[in-house]
C-alpha cells in the first residue's frame, strides 16, 4: 500500500488534503501538524519521512508581513525546513511535492507567468519560499515537485473571502484594491490536484519541476469581493474600488500574480477550473453556512 505523508496538516490546505485523502482507502496517510513535526529539526524530519512514498508539504511560515520583520525566522521554516524534507526524501527515495507561492515572482508582468519564468521576489516571504524551491530543485532533480499557488481561500483558516463576508455584517461599504491581479483558488480543489499529482508522480507520468496550482481566469481583489457578495445575495455595489497605496503594509505585494498552467498537460492533468465557478462551488459546499462563508470547526 502506498504511504503518503502530509506535513502542515492542521492548516487550511493541510486539512483539505486530509479530507481528500480520507476518500482514498488505497493510501495509508500520515497527517503531521506543526505540533507533531518541527521542520527545522532535521533529525525529526528524517524519522518522520522514513517509510513514506510521497510527502506533500503544506507546512510553511505564511505571515507575509511577519517575514518582513524577521526574514531569518521565515527562511528557517520555508527554506531550511524544506531542505530537511528534500534531504530526507533523497535518502529514502520518497517523492516530495512542495507547495510554493506566486510571491517568488516579481509581479510586474502583463501576461501570465510561465512555470520557467525568472524568479525575482519583492519581499522577504517570497525570498524564503524561493529558498525552499531551490532546495527541492537541487536535492531532488528527478523526484521533486513544486506547486505554486496564490490567492488561496478555504474553510479552515483566515482568508480574504471569509474576511470580506464577515465585514459585510459590520460595515455598509468596503474599500477594496482594484490594482492587484490574480487567480483566486479554493484550497479544496488545490488539495485534489496535489493528490492527483502524487498519483501521476508514482505512476511515472509527471515530469518533476514547477507546476502552477491556481484556478484559471483572473480578477482583482475588488472583483473577487464583488463576486463573493453577489454569490451570497449581497449588493456588490457595497464594494468600492481603491488603490494599493491606500493600504500601506510592511511587505510589498506583487501587482500581477496571474500564472499560466501549461505544465499540467505533461502530467496528463487539466488546469484547475475557472475561479468564478470554483468560488460558487466553495460557497455552496457542505461546510458553508448562511451567516458566513464556512463554518470553521
TrEMBL record:
Record keywords: NADP, Oxidoreductase
Primary gene name: rfbD
Pathway recorded for this protein: Carbohydrate biosynthesis; dTDP-L-rhamnose biosynthesis
E.C. code: 1.1.1.133
Class of the enzyme per the UniProt entry, highest EC level: oxidoreductase
Organismal lineage: Bacteria, Bacillati, Actinomycetota, Actinomycetes, Micromonosporales
Described purpose of this protein according to its UniProt entry: Catalyzes the reduction of dTDP-6-deoxy-L-lyxo-4-hexulose to yield dTDP-L-rhamnose.
Annotated GO CC locations: cytosol
Biological process according to GO: dTDP-rhamnose biosynthetic process
Pfam family, one: RmlD_sub_bind
Protein name as annotated: dTDP-4-dehydrorhamnose reductase
Amino acid at each position: 500500500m502506498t504511504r503518503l505523508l502530509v506535513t502542515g496538516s492542521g492548516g487550511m490546505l493541510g486539512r483539505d488534503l486530509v479530507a481528500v485523502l480520507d476518500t482514498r482507502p488505497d493510501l495509508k496517510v500520515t497527517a503531521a501538524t506543526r505540533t507533531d513535526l518541527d521542520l527545522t529539526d532535521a533529525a525529526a524530519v528524517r524519522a518522520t519521512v522514513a517509510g513514506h512514498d510521497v510527502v506533500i508539504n503544506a507546512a510553511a511560515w505564511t505571515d507575509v508581513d511577519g517575514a518582513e520583520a524577521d526574514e531569518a525566522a521565515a527562511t528557517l521554516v520555508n527554506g531550511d525546513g524544506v531542505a530537511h524534507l528534500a534531504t530526507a526524501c533523497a535518502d529514502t527515495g520518497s517523492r516530495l511535492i512542495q507547495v510554493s507561492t506566486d510571491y517568488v515572482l516579481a509581479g510586474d508582468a502583463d501576461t501570465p507567468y510561465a512555470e520557467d519564468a525568472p524568479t525575482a521576489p519583492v519581499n522577504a516571504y517570497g525570498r524564503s519560499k524561493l529558498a525552499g524551491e531551490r532546495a527541492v530543485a537541487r536535492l531532488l532533480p528527478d523526484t521533486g515537485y513544486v506547486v505554486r499557488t496564490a490567492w488561496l481561500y478555504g474553510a479552515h483558516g483566515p482568508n480574504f473571502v471569509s474576511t470580506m463576508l464577515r465585514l459585510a455584517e459590520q460595515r455598509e461599504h468596503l474599500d477594496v484594491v482594484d490594482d492587484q491581479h490574480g487567480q483566486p483558488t479554493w484550497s479544496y480543489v488545490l488539495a485534489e490536484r496535489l493528490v492527483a499529482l502524487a498519483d501521476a508522480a508514482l505512476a511515472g507520468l509527471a515530469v518533476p519541476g514547477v507546476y502552477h496550482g491556481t484556478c484559471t481566469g483572473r480578477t482583482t481583489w475588488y472583483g473577487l469581493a464583488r463576486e463573493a457578495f453577489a454569490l451570497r445575495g449581497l449588493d456588490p455595489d457595497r464594494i468600492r474600488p481603491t488603490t494599493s497605496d491606500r493600504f500601506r503594509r510592511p511587505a510589498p505585494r506583487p501587482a500581477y500574480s496571474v500564472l499560466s498552467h501549461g505544465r499540467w498537460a505533461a502530467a496528463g492533468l487539466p488546469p484547475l477550473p475557472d475561479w468564478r465557478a470554483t468560488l460558487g462551488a466553495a460557497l455552496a459546499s457542505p461546510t458553508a453556512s448562511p451567516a458566513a462563508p464556512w463554518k470553521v470547526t
